[in-house]
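re: ur question from the group chat, yeah i did fold both. here u go
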Amino acid sequence: MNRVTPDIVRKAKGQGIAALTAYDYPTARLLDEAGIDVLLVGDSMGMVVLGLPDTTEVQLDDILHHLRAVSRGVQRALLVADLSIDTYRTPEEAVANAKKLISAGAHAVKLEGGTSRIEQIKAIASANIPVMGHIGMLPQRVREEGGYKIKGKTPAESQLLIEDAKAVEDAGAFAVVLELVAPKVADEITRSIRIPTIGIGSGKDCDGQILVFHDLVGYSPWFIPKHVRPEATVGDAISKAAAAFIAKVKGTSANERERARTP
């Protein structure tokens, strides 16, 4: 098995780490066989799979359910799972719930927050569970912040992000996601820490990039984030296939009824 390990990801800084979300077995298998480096069972499932308005209503049981399915399709990629909102309020709670994710098939876990989550990151790492950080725009705080906003627009905010990144690294994270961070700041962070940065909507200068699978393939044409350029139009293809099937069934039924009425 040629699975990417956290150590390899740590050393892959500058080599281009490709990461995508996955929430079910067939998607995970297809992406794994395509050669993806990292798969994330993210709480973004709230919007793209469960029909929720954001990630704040996603429960740990939701993550665990989808994680088990995804793990059955993974042979080589590094499988990371999100700790959902309010599951890592204390170091002890963080470790207990991280262990649940590992038992369900994850190779590593991810949590949101920088300096405010240092003790949780330290505790998880000390329990020999690989942990990925996540700074910048924090989806689990979207309601508090009033939407999805670019971070690092001011010198003060930029400095706080740099401090967050260094703190996450020092606490023992093997990589850190930078979400909606101003590209110039993301570049500075990437050059200032040893662990890889994995960007989403943070410019091209991060060590890797992650996207929500549904956004990448145009699965949900009613919403495409500004930072995404879909590589396919799966949603349109599904709609056309369904329409063709409906027309075929209704047309066949109409023809059969007409023949039945003919003497």
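okk and heres the other one u asked abt
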Amino acid sequence: MRTRSLTTLLATTALWALLAGPALAAKGGEGLYGKTNDKVITNFGFGLMVFFVVLVVGLSVAQSLLEKRKQRK
């Protein structure tokens, strides 16, 4: 059973690796967004940083509210 699972996993990984090259090479390797430059990459990086800051603050506030609710009972 374990050998069959490992063989299936390796075959699936190999198939994905073989199909990834042509998929990434479509349209001159531009990808879904299109042509990118330094400004696009920088703005994406800033957006990613803002997302994680908002995520951490939001989850911390939620945890604080749940802790206060737990202490009231």
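fwiw on the second one: The helical segments are 2-24, 38-72. The mean pLDDT is 88. idk if thats what u expected
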